[in-house]
Specification:
By secondary structure, this protein is of the alpha/beta class. It has eight helices and ten strands. Helices cover 29% and strands 24% of the residues.
Length: 217
């Protein structure tokens, strides 16, 4: 007990307090087009600059790696070109993109490809995986899948904060209004992560072409 209490860790307890514990796995899930990517890019900017996330959650400055297996490369380029950070912060941001839909963290954990070795050598503090359904080939409803996937990404990045983006499963809808969706599986992905964020979409009838989002942790 005394050894642990007196140990001096090199990293803080939270990379983003209290939403992203150091060395933790964060699951971010929400409906399609609810703003998940914008949210994690805002988090990335906050970490790169060491500033407040959403103007209220303090972040330690660090390096960010985006592993992108969901979005076309031209769309990624467009988002990064519009990311309002200075050159010093940009130098601390790396991207590993795969448009082939063949990226698999289970295979990478067993035998990392050269680009993964380069990503590890970049020594990020925050790693973002976009998205869950595209980084493994398992059945997401299998209760053993979360531990296998989380175990693989933790093997690749042992001490980093890992944020995994997941798409909610669509519910049947009636009419033109899009109802919120529920997370894929049966909660095992949330229960196995260290913390989960749910981005919930809602509408104001006075603004028919605008949607709002609430982040719950």
């Amino acid at each position: 007990m005394d050894d642990l209490c007196n140990h001096k860790f090199e990293r803080p307890m939270f990379l983003c307090e209290p939403l992203a514990p150091s060395g933790g796995i964060v699951l971010l899930h929400g409906p399609s087009e609810s703003g998940k990517t914008q949210l994690v890019m805002t988090l990335a900017k906050s970490v790169l600059e060491g500033r407040m996330f959403l103007n209220q959650f303090p972040c330690h400055q660090g390096r960010v790696l985006l592993i992108e297996a969901d979005t076309p490369i031209l769309a990624i380029q467009n988002r990064l070109q519009r990311l309002p950070v200075d050159k010093q912060a940009r130098d601390a941001f790396a991207v590993l993109a795969d448009e082939s839909k063949a990226f698999n963290v289970l295979a990478q954990a067993g035998s990392p490809a050269p680009e993964m070795l380069a990503a590890q050598a970049f020594a990020p503090d925050l790693v973002i995986f976009d998205s869950l359904r595209d980084i493994h080939g398992l059945d997401e409803n299998d209760s053993t899948a979360p531990r296998q996937v989380y175990g693989a990404i933790r093997k690749l990045f042992p001490t980093q904060v890992l944020v995994v983006i997941a798409h909610d499963r669509k519910k049947p809808t009636m009419g033109t209004r899009h109802h919120d969706e529920e997370t894929s599986g049966h909660g095992a992905w949330r229960n196995t992560s260290d913390i989960s964020w749910h981005l919930e979409r809602w509408y104001n009838h006075k603004e028919p072409f605008v949607h709002h989002a609430t982040l719950r942790s």
